[in-house]
Amino acid sequence: MARLTSARVALLGTLRRDGSPRISPIEPYFAEGQLLIGAMAWTGKASDLRRDPRYVLHSAVTSPDSGEGELKLNGPAAEAGPDRLSALSPRPGRFTALCSAYF
Fold first, then answer.
1. Which residues are within 8 A (CB) of 9 and not within 5 positions of it... i.e. 6 or more apart?
2. Are 97 and 48 in contact (CB under 8 A)?
3. Whole-angstrom Cα distance, residue 46 to residue 1?
4. Residues 5-13, mean pLDDT to the nearest whole number
5. Phi first, then psi: what are they for 62, rounded to 5°?
6. 2-99 is a CATH 2.30.110.10 domain
7. Is the pTM of the predicted complex or chain greater than 0.85?
8. Cα–Cα separations (whole angstroms), residue 15 to 12, 82, 84
9. Which of 10, 11, 15, 70 is deepest in the core (most CB within 10 A)?
10. How far is CA 98 from the centre of its chain?
């Protein structure tokens, strides 16, 4: 998990309505063993996850020669309600999706 939190930016892959892939930069945050990702309700990534909860998350790689490890996660996303977000988020109201990570 340090790989995701140290870079503070990761790439989220979702599926559009027509089945084509969408990739979006996000700021991952871990709380109580859960991965939180930010998605404004009106964005394509949020619409994608509501329609099809499958996602893939890839750590940002800054250089081919950096020696940084890669981290890839995938699983189903679940929208977090306001109570859950307030309990988990360092910035309540900013995060709208709670994802289960599978290792």
1. 25, 26, 27, 60
2. no
3. 23
4. 79
5. -90, -20
6. yes
7. no
8. 10, 25, 25
9. 10
10. 8
Q: If you average pLDDT over residues 20-48, what whole number do you get?
A: 84
Q: Which CB contacts under 8 angstroms, 24+ apart, belong to 47-56?
A: 47/17, 48/14, 48/15, 48/16, 48/17, 48/22, 49/14, 49/77, 49/79, 49/97, 50/79, 51/17, 52/14, 52/15, 53/77, 53/78, 54/14, 54/15, 55/12, 55/13, 55/14, 55/99, 56/12, 56/13
Determine the pLDDT at residue 50.
Answer: 87
Show the tokens assigned to 61: 């790689």
Residue 56: pLDDT band with limits 50, 70, 90: very high
